[in-house]
From TrEMBL:
Major enzyme class: ligase
Record bears the keyword RNA-binding: no
Residues that coordinate or bind ATP: S29, G30, G31, V32, D33, S34, S35
Gene Ontology terms: biological process: asparagine biosynthetic process
Catalytic activity: XMP + L-glutamine + ATP + H2O = GMP + L-glutamate + AMP + diphosphate + 2 H(+)
Protein's name according to its UniProt entry: GMP synthase [glutamine-hydrolyzing]
Domain GMPS ATP-PPase residues, every copy: 2-193
Organism: Desulfoglaeba alkanexedens ALDC
Main function: Catalyzes the synthesis of GMP from XMP.
MF annotations from Gene Ontology: asparagine synthase (glutamine-hydrolyzing) activity; ATP binding; GMP synthase activity
Pathway in which this enzyme or protein is active: Purine metabolism; GMP biosynthesis; GMP from XMP (L-Gln route): step 1/1
UniProt KW keywords: ATP-binding, Glutamine amidotransferase, GMP biosynthesis, Ligase, Nucleotide-binding, Purine biosynthesis
GO CC aspect terms: cytosol
Lineage per the UniProt record: Bacteria, Pseudomonadati, Thermodesulfobacteriota, Syntrophobacteria, Syntrophobacterales
Residues of the full protein shown: 201 to 518 of 518
């Protein structure tokens, strides 16, 4: 549209003005916001943009490969992929508290990002996908007592590394970011992608994160995505995902008694994640997802549907 076109042109102009011939780094997550920022910056400064993607081992199935395909192969960007799965899992060992998990993941992310950034030539700027609701939320939830959940981003880094921030999406809402992404030619799969938390699958495994639990949840999550897409429901909801509960229940498989894990299915509608309602998806879709998870994911024998809205619940379980 005309407005998005002029937004893109004005942003590119402003970025060029600010950056001059300097170098910029960007933490790519594969989500809509950081993807749009990366493409916008790439249009503005080309090879002087350096993207870093940290594979923390807490990602969805095939995510790391997809990011490389889109940004390195298709957009031809400078992209460093850091495989840090073992480090993250090592530090998460034995940790069950949700905020503790977030802190560990956020801090290690910063450590790794900082180390990688130091290898790059004279970087002076950090580009970030901060949106308008993030700006509001960090103002209204000031102070640790009022913090509902510590959201993980690269906060803290700019000062430590003496970097100047570039936040071209600061005045936009999510739906506007999607329009900008479309204007920039990002693939529809990225534009319509549901939000995915920085701490990833770690906060969807209630209790301790282990490689085995990650394998189970990653498979269940992939099936949820597949079924939502096949039914034409993926684009109709804000988020859809699986949560692995720290509960086992009894079941039967053939003539055998099973005592396996429980997956909770969470599907919500929302406009800005500040409030949300559980989505009234068709029973047939629920049935399809449940059958596939129980039949195809070893170790799971029960699926339940989350019928809580936000508030008083939150979208994520941790
Ligand atoms: P809650 O669970 O607070 O989530 O209702 C609101 C939205 O934020 C996402 N979320 C996070 N995103 N780091 C993120 O980048 C986090 O630590 C985090 N926690 C929740 C969540 O997926 C939902 O879209």
């Amino acid at each position: 549209t005309w407005t998005m076109k002029s937004f893109v042109e004005a942003s590119i102009e402003a970025i060029r003005e600010k950056v001059g011939d300097g170098h910029v780094i960007c933490a790519l997550s594969g989500g809509v916001d950081s993807s749009v920022v990366a493409v916008l910056l790439h249009k503005a400064v080309g090879p002087r943009l350096h993207c870093i993607f940290v594979d923390n081992g807490l990602l969805r199935k095939g995510e790391s490969e997809a990011v490389q395909r889109v940004f390195r192969d298709h957009f031809d960007m400078n992209l460093t992929v850091v495989d840090a799965a073992r480090q993250f899992l090592g530090r998460l060992k034995g940790v069950t508290d949700p905020e503790e998990k977030r802190k560990i993941i956020g801090n290690l992310f910063i450590e790794i990002f900082e180390r990688e950034a130091q290898r790059l030539p004279n970087v002076r700027y950090l580009a970030q996908g901060t949106l308008y609701p993030d700006v509001i939320e960090s103002v209204s939830f000031k102070g640790p007592s009022a913090t509902i959940k510590t959201h993980h981003n690269v906060g803290g880094l700019p000062e430590r590394m003496d970097l100047e921030l570039i936040e071209p999406l600061r005045e936009l809402f999510k739906d506007e970011v999607r329009l900008v992404g479309r204007e920039l030619g990002l693939p529809e799969r990225i534009i319509m992608r549901h939000p995915f938390p920085g701490p990833g699958l770690a906060i969807r495994i209630i209790g301790e994160v282990t490689p085995e639990k990650l394998r189970v949840l990653r498979e269940a999550d992939a099936l949820v995505m597949e079924e939502m897409e096949a039914a034409g429901w993926y684009d109709k909801v804000w988020q859809a995902f699986a949560v692995l509960l720290p509960v086992r229940s009894v079941g039967v498989m053939g003539d055998e008694r099973t005592y396996d894990e429980v997956v909770a299915l969470r599907v919500v509608e929302s406009v800005d994640a500040m409030t949300a309602d559980w989505a009234r998806i068709p029973y047939e879709l629920m049935a399809g997802i449940s059958n596939r998870i129980i039949n195809e994911v070893p170790g799971v024998n029960r699926v339940v549907y989350d019928i809580s809205s936000k508030p008083p619940s939150t979208i994520e379980w941790e």
